[in-house]
TrEMBL record:
BioF2-like acetyltransferase domain residues: 168-303
Pfam families for this protein: Acetyltransf_6 (PF13480)
Protein name: BioF2-like acetyltransferase domain-containing protein
InterPro entries: Acyl_CoA_acyltransferase (IPR016181), BioF2-like_GNAT_dom (IPR038740)
Organism of this sequence: Sporomusa ovata
Amino acid sequence: MTQGKLYWLNGKIPDDIDVWKTFWEESVTRRPHDHPGYLRAMATLDLTPMAVLFEHPTGATIFYAFYLHSLNNLEFIGDTICPLFHIVSPYGYGGPIYQGQAKYYEEISAEFESAFNAVLQERGVISEFVREDIFQERLAIRLYGRHVQQQLNAVVRLERDPEEHWRNYKHKVRKNVKKAISTGLKVVFDPNGEYLDEFLKIYYNTMERTGARSSFFFAKECFEVLGCTLGAAGGLTYVHVFEGERIISTELLLLSPDTIYSFLGGTLASEFDKRPNDLLKHETILWGRRQGLKYYVLGGGVSPGDGIFAYKEAFDPGSVYAFFIREVQHDIGKYNQLTQLRKQFEAERGIEWKQRPDFFPAYLS
């Protein structure tokens, strides 16, 4: 079989962005986390949006969007003429997507991984961390790295009649939705982000109340970029719960041709007793079914099996998918060297540094 070709796309080069967008728009999956606008919006200053496109003569493709993290500016690295990088997938779900005939799946996956790994060696990529898509069958096969199931994600199956959805909810969900309706709450879908300021007020309030990490306090500009890029491509909508003229619960949903992804949101603590978020999810389920979608990914909890996960799983009991991460050391020698350099650097500052066993790569923990 004739070999395929691997193309690198840089999310900071206009011509590459055009190729990236065109491929995304014409692809079957159109995973929102792969759109160049999404990676641009969610990037920090030290991350460069990148993607690789593997095209095979059979017509099959493998597409993988990620961030390239330059390591040379880190204090403990020191002076080096060699560029050093770490790859990390965007917040949410990632990994290389395979599109093509099933009979070539294994062979083309192996060819992609071989070509990809060879280029990573040339470019000085030391390590790679992937938050993998929960729909594992969509991903190219990868044999390298440590593959770890982190937790389960709750997923509502949307291809049901409304009555069947209602019967399938756990009792507490039906009770809470009835209560929300009885208090006169209304749900509005907002694909254009007309209520962005109201969304941000509730979202930031929720992050402060829950003690979220600073990385979750995305600037308003991030949401504006999302709106004019991914939103313009039909890849998102906001959904709000109104009490009269006031929004009391809100969420940003990411969209693919068959899936709703619960992304960011919050609820005013003073309004919890009205159960607005139960109503928001109930109406999103009905909306998704009307749109012909198949899945509503609610996600997991802060830790495996916690109360947040139990709340989400109550909307479709037993419908769960495993969420995996992949940790790859592409250059084991340099990986260990960087880890040792980090330890020495901290020791010189009087700090006894110990790498976190739950964090990858170790040298950044």
